[in-house]
Design brief:
By secondary structure, the chain is of the alpha+beta class. The chain has a domain of 64 residues: SH3 type barrels. The chain is built from 2 helices and 6 strands; from the N terminus they run ααββββββ. The protein has a 3-stranded antiparallel sheet with strand order 1-2-3, with no helix packed on it. It is elongated.
Length: 151
């Protein structure tokens, strides 16, 4: 009786072992990836709290805190110049021109020299970077507006 001899190829053995190692490494990496993917699907990232600014101080409450007594029926009035904001000027050499003025925080509008700004003031004159308002064209200037400096 002849006993067959098993022939082994040592180079082939290392190739099979290496391929098996790589295949199981890919299986393990895939299992880790999907395990992390599925475990993080239920939990969401923490939401950052909304930052709230400090409320604006109440001038009347501050005055009461400092000991001021409230005066009856007197409402604070804004200064005349704080109602107007000069946004742009077109000055002409003969005294004409126009100014872009915002009134009471509204969007700015263009006004020519002599045009009424509100019920009591007209645009008296314009100069480069400056506009003057008065009760009429012959009256003394009531308000002088200047453009803010560029930075």
């Amino acid at each position: 009786m002849i006993i067959p001899r098993m022939v082994s190829n040592p180079g082939n053995r290392w190739a099979v072992s290496g391929a098996t190692f790589v295949a199981w490494g890919l299986v393990a990496a895939s299992a880790v990836y999907w395990g992390m993917k599925l475990s993080s699907a239920g939990s969401s990232a923490p939401v950052a709290p909304i930052a709230r600014g400090a409320p604006a101080p109440d001038p009347a409450a501050t005055a009461r805190l400092m000991g001021a007594t409230p005066s009856a029926g007197v409402a604070p009035t804004a200064s005349l110049s704080s109602r107007f904001s000069l946004q742009g000027v077109v000055a002409v050499a003969d005294g004409g021109g126009a100014a872009l003025i915002a009134v009471d925080g509204k969007p700015p509008k263009p006004y020519r020299v002599g045009a009424p700004i509100d019920e009591s003031l007209v645009l008296k004159s314009v100069e480069p970077r400056r506009a003057t308002l008065a009760a009429n064209l012959q009256a003394a200037p009531a308000v002088t507006l200047e453009l803010p400096l560029r930075r």
